[in-house]
Structure formats: C-alpha cells, structure tokens
C-alpha cells in the first residue's frame, strides 16, 4: 500500500473515515488504433457519508474511473493498475465473485439514462426486490414490501399499485427515482451517480438532487457525484476533483475550488459557465482548443497546448515535465503558488462577476 505523508497543518487525506481510497489508478484500453490511456495516475478519497464531486469535460475519464471502481470493465481489452481500496480491501485484485457481492450491496450506481439499469421486461417492483432478496436473503413477500417502502421513499405516488408497473409506464423523472430506489434498496455505503440528472428538466432535477441529499442523510451513504454542471456540484458536493485527460488537475473542498481555483483548466471551466440569472444567449468564454487525444496525450502537462499561462513558467517545463498533484488541497500546475493567486485575482475573478 502507498504510504502517504501528512503535511503539517493539513488534513490527512486518508483518515479512519476514508471509505474509498483510490491510488495511482491507471486504466488503458487496447484498440485498433492503439492504447487509449483513459485514466492515467488518478488518486482520490471518498469519506463515509460525504459527497465527492468529479467534474471535467466529456472524455476526461470520469465514467471509466467509476465503472472501474465497480469492476465493470472488460477484462480482456482493459488493463487496470493501481489500487482501489474499499475499507482497505483492494478491488483491483479482488476476484469477480467478490465484486459481484459488493455491487448493488455495498456499492451501487445510478446513471444518466435509467433504461440502461432498468429492464423493460420486468416490473419496477421486481427489479427493486431482486437485489434485496439476493443480498439479504429476504423472502419474496418481504422484498415486495421493501420495494413499496423504497418507492415511497423516492416519492412515487401510489407505490402499492405502481410497484407492479413496467418501466415504460413511468415518466422519465419517475424512472430516475425508481433507479435510485433500486440502487439504494440494500443501503449501500457508496453510491456512484454518473450525471444522474443531466437528461431531466430543471424542476425534476432539483427534486432528484434533494432526494439524494435526504437519502444520504438517512443512510449515511458516501456519494461520488459526476457531472459537468458546476452549479449542481456546488449544491451537492463536499469535496471536488477536477479531471482533465484522465488525471486529476485540482482537488479541494468544493468551496475552496470554486471560490479560489488554482488551475488554469478550472479557471477555464468556471469562465465558460453561464452566470446565475444571466441571459443564456450571452457569449461565454469557452476554453479554446479541444480536449487532448488519449491515444497520444500531450507531453508534460496535458493542458499545456490550451493553456494561456505557459509563458509565465520559465523554460519549457509545461511541455516537458508532468506537474504532480500533491495531497490535500492542490493543483497540478507549474505556476508558483503566488502566480496562481495573483493571476486568479487580477485576470480571472473579474471575468466571473
Ligand atoms: N471500452 C473502451 N474502449 C476504448 N476507449 C474507451 C472505452 N471506454 C471509454 N473509452 C475512452 O476513454 C475516454 C474516457 O471516457 P469516459 O470516462 O467515458 O469520459 P467521461 O465520462 O469523462 O466523458 C474517452 O476518450 C473514451 O472514448
Ligand atoms: Mg461519462
């Protein structure tokens, strides 16, 4: 196991509460075009009962990371290295049988599209009851009662009759609730929510987010919340990880990262976000350039080809030397701490107002 040094005055990154601890995770896919480095040296922690937000442009490795945590990658074409410690047990080396026992029980997942999780051929009630029977040994009758209880919890009206409906008889928002009921039926310690509200309208989205917060309070679930919506993240997360090109470029509490971001990529993300209450047609400042190829990632800092501040760093460090992300509150960037602060205050912050 990797030993972590505790910096004085800084919170230790892995305390007794660190339920999930991912260390130097690398996930590679062999494809016809070559090796895709989808996750490239990623480390993070999730505390029990807390929410870790993961943000980043599409293709930055958010979903692959979390599917790997669940062991849902194709073992044939995928190489996984590093550690995924769940209560100290390494899931990277755990046998598939053990992962199967964990999934839906200790660790569960909800997706953007509930139809990837719900089968059209079985009633909603049966799909909630089945994992409950499998993991707890409950009888059919008990499991049906539990399904009705869960449908009530997630706010489905007339749960006693709705339990016998098929997914197509539910609206989109109700299907999302049913999927949450299915994910939480065994009271998991960790819930992975991968863009769970992206497809929903704003009102339903707000209801689902409130529901997740309530359920987290009730069950003490640790949540990994993946989104590209910084507004949603500021509402949901305790800690935040900003991903770029399969790596973490910035980490900290959600307040710290959103109020005093230290990485040029995070500055770009914040600048490209519409202001609250602003006219959405107002021109935003999207980050120039496009996300890097993961087949042939840039040398040095993966963000350097799109970064406006490489000129501030002496020599060609940005294009030759990979910046590391320290522990705790950190940004993987060669700018000095003073430069990060003064550029943010002088150049970035005025644009965010
Ligand atoms: N099975 C796979 N084979 C090859 N490449 C993949 C596979 N799954 C994902 N990728 C690639 O890995 C990268 C990260 O994908 P993903 O984690 O889905 O991004 P995100 O969720 O951040 O949008 C993308 O470039 C994607 O094309
Ligand atoms: Mg994704």
Structure in words:
This protein has 353 residues and is α/β, with parallel strands linked by helices. The protein has a domain at 259-352. 33% of the residues lie in helices and 21% in strands. The protein has 12 helices and 11 strands. It has helices at residues 62-69, 96-102, 124-136, 140-153, 159-162, 172-184, 202-219, 230-236, 254-259, 264-271, 317-320, 337-352; strands at residues 18-31, 34-47, 51-55, 78-86, 89-90, 107-110, 190-194, 222-226, 239-244, 247-253, 330-331. A 7-stranded mixed sheet has the order 6-7-8-3-9-10-11, with helices on both faces. The chain has a 4-stranded antiparallel sheet with strand order 2-1-4-5, covered by helices on one side. Helix 3 (124-136) packs across helix 4 (140-153). The longest helix is centred in the middle third of the chain and has 18 residues, at 202-219. It is globular and about 70 Å long. The termini are far apart. Belongs to the ABC transporter superfamily. Pfam families: ABC_tran, oligo_HPY. This is Peptide ABC transporter ATP-binding protein. It is found in: Cell membrane.
């Amino acid at each position: 196991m990797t030993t972590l040094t505790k910096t004085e005055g800084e919170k230790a990154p892995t305390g007794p509460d660190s339920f999930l601890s991912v260390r130097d995770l690398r996930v590679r896919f062999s494809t016809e075009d070559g090796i895709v480095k989808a996750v490239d040296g990623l480390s993070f922690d999730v505390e029990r009962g807390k929410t870790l937000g993961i943000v980043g442009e599409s293709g930055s490795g958010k979903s692959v990371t979390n599917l790997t945590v669940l062991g849902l990658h194709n073992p044939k074409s995928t190489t996984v290295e590093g550690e995924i410690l769940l209560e100290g047990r390494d899931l990277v080396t755990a046998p598939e049988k053990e992962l199967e026992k964990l999934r839906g029980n200790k660790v569960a997942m909800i997706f953007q599209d509930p139809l990837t999780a719900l089968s059209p051929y079985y009633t909603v009630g049966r799909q909630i009851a089945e994992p409950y029977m499998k993991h707890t040994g409950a009888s059919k009758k008990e499991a049906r009662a539990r399904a009705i209880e869960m449908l009530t919890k997630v706010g489905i009206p007339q749960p006693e009759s709705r339990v016998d409906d098929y997914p197509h008889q539910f609206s989109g928002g109700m299907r999302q609730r049913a999927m949450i009921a299915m994910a939480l039926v065994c009271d998991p310690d960790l819930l992975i929510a991968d863009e769970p509200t992206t497809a929903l309208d704003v009102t339903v989205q707000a209801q689902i987010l409130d529901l997740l917060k309530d359920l987290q309070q009730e069950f003490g679930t640790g949540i990994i919340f993946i989104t590209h919506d910084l507004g949603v993240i500021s509402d949901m997360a305790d800690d935040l990880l900003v991903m770029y090109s399969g790596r973490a470029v910035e980490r900290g509490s959600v307040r710290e990262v959103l109020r005093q971001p230290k990485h040029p990529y995070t500055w770009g993300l914040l600048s490209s976000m519409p202001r609250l209450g602003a006219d959405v047609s107002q021109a935003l400042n999207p980050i120039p350039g496009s996300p890097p190829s993961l087949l042939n990632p840039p040398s040095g800092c993966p963000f350097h080809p799109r970064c406006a501040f490489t000129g501030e760093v002496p020599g060609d460090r940005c294009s030759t030397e990979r910046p590391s992300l320290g522990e705790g509150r950190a940004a993987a960037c060669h700018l000095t701490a003073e430069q990060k602060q003064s550029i943010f205050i002088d150049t970035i912050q005025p644009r965010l107002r």
